[in-house]
Amino acid sequence: MKTLTVKLPDPLFAEISRMAEQRKVPKSEIVRERLEQGASNASSLWQRMEDLVVRDDAAPCDLSSNKNHLAGYGKNRDRR
């Protein structure tokens, strides 16, 4: 098993220390469990962004085919 040294914020270190004392296990075991739990709960990018995606039925029709939408397009451009 390899060793890794990390710096933790004080509140997180205190929480890990408290859990280790309660369970009477080394702090490293608590950290390993949390890392493994986080890896197993990892979701795909799609799962994390799914609520941001616009569904087909929620999107407006193709605006480029609506001639009223294009009315006046390019009229404000300078002619050089």
Explain this structure:
The chain is mainly α. It has one domain (10-65). It is 41% helix and 0% strand. The protein has helices at residues 10-23, 27-40, 45-49.
Helix and strand sequence: HHH
The low-confidence runs, each spanning 5 or more residues with pLDDT under 50, are none
CA-based shape? elongated
- What would you report as the Rg, rounded to the nearest angstrom? 27 Å
List keywords for this structure.
80 residues; mainly alpha; 3 helices; 0% strand
Lay out the secondary structure.
Blueprint: H1 10-23, H2 27-40, H3 45-49
Quick synopsis:
With 80 residues, the protein is mainly alpha-helical.
